[in-house]
Design brief:
By secondary structure, the protein is mainly α. 44% of the residues lie in helices and 0% in strands.
Amino acid sequence: MKLIQIVLLITIAVFIAVPFSVGKAEYGRKESTACTFCHPPVKFKELTDAGKYYREHDHSLQGYKAGESK
């Protein structure tokens, strides 16, 4: 019974937290890139240069050149 309560609590927490996540898989599908193109592996709250460009250019990578810094 205690295991069921723990699983239920975790499930509820996940459903509450999911809408607040910042990155969206739809961005990767739109740009045909993996999540790690804009986010460093394991540090998904941080952004790579590509992710910063994407955020600052109205969610578009148009005109982005890899390795180019601001």
